[in-house]
Design goal:
By secondary structure, the chain is an alpha+beta fold. Helix content is about 55%, strand content about 15%. It has 5 helices and 3 strands.
């Protein structure tokens, strides 16, 4: 992940409704939730929620699929892993043995 993509993902999560939706989807795991259910749980109308979820999907944090007439969203494991790797890439470089968050294979 490049800085540009990381900034886009972090900016997307910087909006309250999107952050709440993302956290809700993290709780749900790989099965995800229908847009209607996410809207209901967060008290946001469906069209607004769809727009927010689409924004998160464009940043690579979510993925979606259709089930009949509904769209289901779930956390994109690869997207969040790339973001976390980017954020922790230089973590504890001065003392890799003490690092709890990053994997520095070149130093093992």
């Amino acid at each position: 992940m490049e800085s540009k993509e990381a900034i886009a993902a972090l900016l997307a999560l910087g909006q309250r409704t999107r952050l709440d939706a993302y956290r809700l989807l993290l709780e749900q795991g790989p099965d995800g939730l229908r847009v209607t259910e996410i809207s209901k749980r967060l008290g946001v109308n469906i069209s607004t929620m769809s727009r927010h979820l689409g924004h998160l999907e464009r940043t690579g944090l979510l993925h979606s699929w259709r089930l009949e007439r509904e769209v289901i969203y779930a956390v994109d494991d690869n997207g969040i892993q790339q973001l976390m790797n980017f954020l922790t890439e230089n973590c504890c470089r001065a003392n890799p043995a003490t690092c709890k968050w990053a994997d520095h294979p070149s130093e093992k």
